[in-house]
């Protein structure tokens, strides 16, 4: 991959010790995100999308831990920086939008003040008045009608769609280089979803931020993303330009995932059924995690984990079918 990589995640591993044993939630996640690009992170529930997002921000909850790997942000390893530096990066350079906006807004502070506060935390030279003014401007940019009035409201006085807009305003007001959005619209109804996604696309162009968009909705992905990374059982099995991956998927899992989607799939319906079951994460995979369900599995697939092989034009597939000379 080229050196305009903003985020370069290599062999990321996360474990959660539990009473039943250690859950190997991430088992070597590798992907890259270029500047100003939108990368979709896809895969069924439990495959490790949210844990990947949290790990990038170093917010994996205790006793969970990042056991291995590198997270290079502009070439700097986030796993090696101090907690103080990390706190500084969060919010100013890397922001995250959560699924339930009202959970992340403080219920007892007016929303305008919350957006302003984000600015003040990261820019000590700014006056309160100027921050309040920038907050109102940001609300206006997000298409909020009468932003001055909305700024004076409390979170519970807003609709879900409006609260999500405020949340996005809060995350973008510092102009971060990377915005992570974990299923940002799945708690909203379909028409609002479409509006919010349009808005994020437009804003992304204006602010020139890169976006890591987590969604299980491949329709949203096709509409919004430049590239996609497909995850299965704690690792990335395929990544590449969105059109290539959706039209000519090369990993048997991605192929299964796409084949089983009806054309008019409802946004939160289960997307597919591939024979067999998702593996338990209590044992790290010795071979390809998908091998037990794969119709094209070969003996070596059960014996070792396939690396990502580079195909044409930034398309990578972790499958021995694509090993040179296979
Ligand atoms: N705090 C936790 N403690 C134990 N296991 C966890 C914790 N958070 C996530 N996991 C496990 O890690 C795996 C990946 O979870 P997650 O990233 O939330 O999946 P996704 O977002 O793709 O649906 C799941 O098997 C989940 O049970
Ligand atoms: Mg999740």
User: Element order, helices and strands?
Assistant: EEEHEEHEHHHHHEHEHEEHHHEE
CATH 4th-level superfamily: P-loop containing nucleotide triphosphate hydrolases
Question: What is the CATH topology classification name?
Answer: Rossmann fold
Q: What CATH first level would be assigned?
A: Alpha Beta
Rg is: 20 Å
* SS-based class: alpha/beta
Percent of sequence in beta strands? 15-25%
* Total domain count: 1
Give a quick account of the main beta sheet: strands, pairing sense, barrel closure.
8 strands, mixed
Q: How many strands?
A: 12
Determine the N-to-C terminus distance: 23 Å
CATH architecture: 3-Layer(aba) Sandwich
Strand order of the largest sheet: 6-7-8-3-9-10-12-11
The low-confidence runs, each spanning 5 or more residues with pLDDT under 50, are: none
Structural commentary:
The chain is α/β, with parallel strands linked by helices and 326 residues long. It has a single domain, classed as 3-Layer(aba) Sandwich (Rossmann fold), CATH 3.40.50. The protein is built from 12 helices and 12 strands. The protein has helices at residues 49-56, 83-92, 101-104, 111-122, 128-141, 147-151, 160-172, 190-207, 218-224, 242-247, 252-259, 299-303; strands spanning 5-18, 21-34, 38-42, 65-73, 76-77, 94-97, 178-182, 210-214, 227-232, 235-241, 309-310, 316-317. The protein has an 8-stranded mixed beta sheet, sandwiched between helices. Strand 7 (178-182), helix 8 (190-207) and strand 8 form a beta-alpha-beta unit. It is globular, with a radius of gyration of 20 Å. The protein starts with a strand and ends in a 9-residue tail after the last strand. The mean pLDDT is 90. The protein binds adenosine-5'-diphosphate and magnesium ion. Adenosine-5'-diphosphate is lined by residues 16, 18, 23, 25, 43, 45-51, 61, 64, 281. Magnesium ion is lined by residues 49-50, 182.
């Amino acid at each position: 991959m080229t050196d305009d990589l903003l985020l370069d995640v290599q062999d990321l591993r996360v474990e959660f010790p539990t009473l039943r044993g250690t859950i190997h939630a991430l088992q070597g996640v590798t992907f890259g995100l270029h500047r100003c690009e939108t990368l979709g992170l896809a895969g069924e529930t439990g495959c490790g999308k949210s844990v990947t997002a949290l790990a990038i921000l170093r917010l994996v909850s205790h006793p969970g831990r990042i056991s291995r790997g590198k997270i290079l942000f502009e070439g700097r390893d986030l796993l090696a920086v101090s907690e103080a530096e990390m706190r500084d990066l969060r919010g100013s350079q890397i922001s995250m939008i959560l699924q339930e906006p009202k959970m992340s807004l403080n219920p007892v502070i007016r929303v305008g003040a919350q957006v302003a506060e984000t600015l003040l935390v990261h820019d000590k030279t700014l006056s309160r008045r100027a921050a309040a003014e920038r907050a109102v401007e940001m609300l206006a940019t997000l298409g909020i009608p009468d932003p001055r009035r909305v700024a004076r409201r409390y979170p519970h006085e807003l609709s879900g769609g409006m609260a999500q807009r405020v949340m996005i305003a809060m995350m973008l007001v510092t102009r971060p280089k990377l915005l992570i959005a974990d299923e940002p619209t799945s708690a909203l109804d379909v028409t609002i979803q479409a509006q919010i996604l349009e808005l994020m696309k437009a804003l992304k162009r204006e602010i020139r931020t890169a976006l890591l968009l987590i969604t299980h909705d491949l329709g949203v992905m096709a509409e919004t993303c430049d590239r996609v990374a497909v995850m299965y059982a704690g690792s990335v099995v395929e990544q590449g330009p969105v059109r290539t991956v959706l039209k000519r998927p090369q990993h048997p899992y991605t192929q299964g995932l796409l084949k089983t989607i009806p054309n008019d799939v409802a946004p939160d319906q289960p997307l597919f059924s591939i024979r067999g079951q998702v593996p338990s994460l209590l044992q790290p995979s010795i071979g390809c995690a998908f091998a037990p369900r794969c119709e094209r599995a070969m003996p070596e697939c059960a014996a070792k984990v396939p690396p990502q092989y580079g195909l044409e034009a930034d398309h990578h597939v972790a499958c021995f079918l694509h090993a040179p000379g296979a």
